[in-house]
Write a structure and sequence with these properties.
Elements lengths: L10 E4 L2 H8 L6 E3 L2 E3 L8 E11 L15 E11 L8 E2 L4 H5 L20 E2 L4 E3 L9 E7 L11 H9 L3 E6 L6 H6 L14 H17 L2 H6 L7 E11 L1 H11 L12 E7 L19 H4 L3 H7 L4
Parallel strand pairs: 1-12, 4-8, 9-10, 9-11, 11-12
Antiparallel strand pairs: 2-3, 4-5, 5-10, 6-7
Helix pairs in contact: 1-9, 5-7
């Protein structure tokens, strides 16, 4: 669906990563703290906290289909957030989604036994990060949901950028899109192919539903209950954004345009979106001679202006 009203604050950004770093300068907690300027490509005034959680969307099956079976669709999240605790160590991020890789009860690979955890070294944080740190208590923070590229994981696509955003005062949740994640490659080590039905329900459609579900869970205190950190009390619900790279960039675009060909509406809680390295391929379909996606030429804005106008600054 086209965004027809010029009064809407939804801004779509199609810029290179450098442009996104400039955008940070206009956001709520970047820039100055007690008179000190923090360059947008460096850590900000906060230390960086990190946690992980697995949420289950009970409205969809693992592959996104309905009617729903008891298992639901599980989603692994890496969450970065501002903290005032001193951080002096790096943390190791895992690229191994335990539910997807270990095939509990034949959930992903029907007919096959449970599998041992796959060995995956993952990566080390670029910045000093403290796992399970307390959330900073000196303000309300915008919520950003990050969508990774095709066939990678929630901590594998641009974690350094997500760490930096948290240090500038953002709650950043990177959702791992089950069935379109790094586990596909890890499974190939065992000579397995993922359950084909996972990709038959519409990859971008399921990704956008994942992002909306994550926003729901943050606002409805479900993430608080799972992590023991009271995120919901300090989220500025008027400042919610999405960002992504490659297929994650396309997911970000879909969040604010909707997917007309699937009859799926935009999520109007999202006030800004950054589309890095993505395309709008697959969005366009004819409906009475009218495209269902927003034109790329309309969507291009400078990152700084876009975040500012969208209300996240």
């Amino acid at each position: 669906m086209l965004l027809e009203s010029p009064k809407k604050k939804l801004i779509i950004i199609l810029c290179v990563a450098v442009g996104f770093l400039f955008a940070i300068n206009s956001l709520a907690f970047s820039g100055k703290s007690k008179g000190k300027f923090y360059p947008p490509d460096q850590v900000g005034p906060y230390s960086i906290g990190h946690t992980t959680v697995i949420l289950t969307d009970t409205s969809r099956n693992l592959d996104g289909s309905t009617p729903v079976t008891p298992e639901g669709r599980f989603l692994h999240l890496d969450i970065w957030y501002p903290t005032t605790e001193k951080t002096t160590e790096h943390v190791a991020y895992t690229w191994n989604n335990p539910l997807y890789n270990e095939n509990p009860d034949g959930l992903v690979y029907p007919g096959l036994p449970d599998l041992p955890p796959l060995i995956s070294e993952g990566s080390r944080s670029l910045n000093h990060v403290l796992d399970e740190a307390p959330l900073a208590q000196n303000g309300n923070f915008p919520l950003l949901v990050a969508s990774h590229g095709s066939l990678v994981s929630s901590a594998k696509n641009m974690p350094d950028t997500l760490e930096t955003l948290a240090s500038h005062g953002y709650l950043v949740a990177s959702v791992e899109h089950t069935g379109n994640n790094d586990a596909y490659y890890q499974a190939s080590v065992l000579g397995l192919t993922p359950n084909p039905s996972i990709q038959q329900e519409g990859t971008i459609l399921q990704r956008t539903k994942d992002v909306s579900f994550v926003i729901d869970q943050f606002l409805q205190e479900a993430v608080d209950q799972e992590t023991g950190i009271a995120f919901s009390e300090q989220i500025d619900a008027e400042k919610i954004g999405v960002l992504g790279f490659s297929l994650g960039g396309q997911t970000s675009l879909a969040m604010v345009t909707g997917i007309g060909s699937a009859g799926h509406p935009a999520d109007h809680r999202v006030k800004a979106a950054f589309m890095g390295g993505g395309t709008n391929w697959g969005f366009f379909s004819t409906n009475g001679g009218r495209a269902s996606g927003a034109p790329l030429s309309w969507a291009c804005e400078t990152a700084t202006t876009a975040w500012s106008v969208a209300g996240l600054s």
